[in-house]
Design a protein that fits this description.
Elements: H1 2-18, H2 23-58, E1 82-85, E2 91-95, E3 102-106, E4 109-113, E5 130-136, E6 140-145, E7 169-171, E8 179-181, E9 187-191, E10 194-198, E11 202-207, E12 210-215, E13 219-222, E14 237-238, E15 242-243, E16 246-247, H3 252-257, H4 276-281, E17 285-288, E18 297-301, E19 307-308, H5 318-325, E20 330-333, E21 355-361, E22 364-367, E23 388-393
Parallel strand pairs: 1-9, 14-19
Antiparallel strand pairs: 2-3, 3-4, 4-5, 5-6, 7-8, 9-10, 10-11, 11-12, 12-13, 15-16, 17-18, 18-23, 20-21, 21-22, 22-23
Amino acid sequence: MNTSFEESVRARMESLTASPPPAGLASRAVRVAQRRRWLRALALVAGLAVVAVWVLLTWRPPALSAVPEVGVDPMGTPVAATVIDVSAWPTADFADPTGGAQCSMSADGVRCQPFTTVALPPKNACSGLMVVPVLGKEASSWSCAMEMVALPTPDSPTIDWAKGRGYPVVPTPEGGDYRWQTLPVGVTLIRGSLSCHTDGRGIACVRGDRSLALTSSATTFTGPHPEMPTGAVHDPTVSITGVGALTVGMMAQQAKDAGLMLANPTYGRESRQMSDAFLQGYDGVNVDWANGPTLRGIVIKNRTEYVTAERARIGTTLAKLREQYGNLLVELPRTTANFDDLTLESALGVGYGDSVPVLREGNRYLAFPILRDATDREPGTRTGVVSEILIGTINAKGQLVVPTG
């Protein structure tokens, strides 16, 4: 009896367990599961959307240095990948990758020493000084320089812009002791609207619609610029008062007004204070300001174009001078009684005859010293003829004040 009861109960339970749930209950469970899956998917999409919006609102691309709009690149090379602003340094010097040409950037622009393979204006265009191309603030021009305008040597403060960058330093191609800090290909130096870079052919600098390009075959300006100077004498007229627009005793302001002197001169016995117009138009003329604002004397050398009204010039013989001036010509003994300075530094220091042919008028003189010995003179210097022309003053002692040549 009990066994039958247990069996019946067991059979009933097995039948209940094996039977599926009612249809309504099963469908409801399916819908709940699907709804949960959709909610999870929507939550994921919403989260991704929030992240995307945050990224778009807060992310910025890395800042890129760019060369300012500075006109057409004369070499046609691409914009450099690296840009260095050198405005923080007074001067930034550099050489092209071969070391063959060098430039110096400053607030005034860029001045360069071209490749030595390039034909440049003759030195007599700058009274024997260096002739260099300049891309300045307002103009492009050829200029005169007493010394090298760029010295990108490793120990120079002018290459501080390159310190720590590992850019190559190369020896000058012509040999010698110089080694140059180079500006590598792919690097551009900028200073305001001025930019300079190098490529396989040389150096290119650009400012607005003007440019300067240096290659091993040419030095080229684009935009307005003067022609290459020829070294022609501007005004060859020589008199007892001076030469051309230069007169002994003139004040510095007069020379500035005539365009022959810089605005802020360095007075002395060299030509540092004179303008390019003077250096290019008065080749062979040396001025002596005697460390003050008054022109003390003039020495004319090397050029036969300078001539007096009587046709006396460098190369004229003593006999011809006597014929040209007659009794006006005095041959003064070359002594300290007649000349205030006969040292090695003066224009009458060594190699001259015992006397000097001179014209005198008031406190002015015009002298035609004749060489007797050309030792240590420039090649081609002639003896027995006028070698230089001196224009100066006569002091209270009656001595001729000899300008420094």
